[in-house]
Amino acid sequence: MTTEVHKLEVLTDRLLVLNNEAFNHFENYAKQKQNADFATYVKPFADDVKEASDQWLPLASVFVIKTKPKYLHDKQIQTAHENLTISSVTCFQADTKKKRFVEMNKSVRYTLELLKEAIEKNQ
User: Is residue 29 within 8 Å of residue 92, measured between CB atoms?
Assistant: First the structure.
């Protein structure tokens, strides 16, 4: 395994964890019907997600274009990156629509899990 593929695998695992954390934040703040403090909670979490997803995006795009895994395309990688950054902020807002957030979170998880499987098959 090349170092770039290993880094992609580590970042994919990290984004799966962050996506799960975003879902947990959403559930907590939706139940409380309160917005989180921006400086204390939102910005640090959104910065973590942005940093990891910005490192992940070019590696994932190159991997998908080179290896052409079944049912996974570069457009899905681009969309997952965009949805990750959006959900890292909206998960803390009480007025976030539940159905939209849950579907976005599932979509990101599906893409990340497909990529993880493709990486494992490619080893």
Answer: yes
